[in-house]
Amino acid sequence: MASPPPGHRRAVNGLAFSPDGRLLASCGNDRTAILWSVADPEHPARITALRGHRRAVRAVAFSPDGRILATGGGDRRVLLWSLADPACLATLAHDRPGWLGRDVRQEAGVNAVAFSPDGRLLACGSDRTVHLWDVSDPARPVRRAATARWSGPVKAVGFAPDGRLLATGAGDPENTGILWDVTDPAHPVRMSTLVPFVRSRATTAFFAGTPSINAVAFSPDGRLLATADGDFGVAGGTGGSWRKGSASLWDVTDPAAGIRTATPAPGAGAGQVLSVAFSPDGRSLAYAGEAADLIVCDLTDPVRPSVAATLTGHRGAVRAVAFSPDGRWLASGGIDRTVRLWAVVSGRSGRT
Predict the structure, then answer these.
(1) By the 8 A CB rule, do 294 and 279 touch?
(2) Confidence band, pLDDT 50/70/90 cuts, at residue 296
(3) Which helix (H) or strand (E) holds 103?
(4) pTM of model > 0.85
(5) Which helix (H) or strand (E) holds 201?
(6) Cα separation values, 5 from 1, 60, 155, 328, Å
(7) I want to staple 196 with a disulfide (CB 3.0 to 4.6 A). Which of 6, 229, 230, 312 is the partner?
(8) Per-residue burial over 60-87, b = 16 or more CB atoms within 10 Å of its CB, e = otherwise
(9) Where does the pLDDT of residue 148 fall: very low under 50, low under 70, confident under 90, or very high at 90 and above?
(10) Residues 45-60: pLDDT tens digits?
């Protein structure tokens, strides 16, 4: 293997493939987003680094036409980049939502961004608020709605393939996951609540920390929603702690119900799950988290998913996973500062 091109100097937080699969965007705690050419996935090449955020860059997303890249950061800003130059077209600023506790301050800022399938809307998870922006003209974005319903940071946003539903995930025990009808973007309607972990009152009283949904992904047909779940606790005055996670599958054919059908991830002891992604054909689900391994599940029977592959190579937590549009490659990024490309069939990886 040839020496890898220079990548991130700190942890990698987010990944996204362009719609044509020729570009991969990564972002990290080094305050940069990097564009990679992956036209030849065996030999990825760094194109450029996008600098403009004043703190860690936590999320990246391509517009459906591949012309715009959105980046969200700990500086509470979303930058819209034209990929023709590349140049920053607009800055979307998000206000601080009042007082933030210590645990929330650590995740303050924009943690998630997602374009609607038609490219007209951009959803941003910022602190305790979800913002919907009209980005029909990327140089002149207009805020359509700002919904503040959470006691903790919003960590995940994602649109259904038909654009009518928006899923959100947060560090909030009562509003961990929410399905929204965004047919009228100016007035989102709450449809149902998804709660992957239910705590007893005794557990809640004794342990600090909170359950969360760290990432969301709709299946290509829109019938399933995958969530990356986590829960942790620290016993007051004892120093004792625990962490657990799961990747949950929810049947969202009736958005008002949101029924969990399966939890294919290991339970206690595996750490929090931080990222999930469906393959383009919907037959596989990839997830990863604090346990460092990537798990690929076969969804032939979504009620009883089976582990098809376990991919090892990262040294530490994996914060992002993404399938290429043709489904042949899986990208992963983590706290070891590397981005890896895995040949899905063979499980072989290369490092950038």
Answers:
(1) no
(2) very high
(3) helix 102-105
(4) yes
(5) helix 201-206
(6) 12, 20, 30, 22
(7) 229
(8) bbbbeebbbbbbbbbbbbbbbbebeeee
(9) confident
(10) 999 999 999 999 999 9
What gap in Å lies between CA 28 and CA 41, rounded to an integer?
21
Q: Which two tokens stand for residue 206?
A: 């004794």
- Block residue for tokens 């009283």: 205
Please give the Cα distance from 223 to 189 (Å, whole number).
19
Q: What is the CA radius of gyration of the chain?
A: 19
Residues 36, 46 contacting (CB under 8 angstroms):
yes
Using DSSP's 3-state secondary structure scheme, residue 318 falls into strand
DSSP H or E run through 191: strand 189-194
Partners of 307 in the β-ladder: 297
For residues 33 and 17, is the Cβ–Cβ distance under 8 A? Answer: no
Cα–Cα distance between 138 and 120 in angstroms, integer? 9
Distance between CA atoms of 212 and 172, rounded to whole angstroms? Answer: 6
The set of residues, in sequence order, having a beta carbon less than 8 Å from that of 134 and lying 6+ positions away, is 120, 121, 141, 142, 143, 144, 185
Mean pLDDT of 310-336: 96
Alpha carbon 40 to its chain's center: 25
Q: Taken in order 293, 15, 243, 55, is the CA torsion positive or negative?
A: positive
Bigger pLDDT: 107 or 328? Answer: 328
Helix (H) or strand (E) holding 192: strand 189-194
- The full DSSP string for 245-266 is EEEEEEE-SSTTT-EEEE--S-
CATH 2.130.10.10 is right for the domain spanning 12-351: yes
Distance CA(49)–CA(171), nearest Å, equals 31
The pLDDT score that the predictor gives to residue 97 is 63
Domain layout of the chain by residue ranges:
12-351
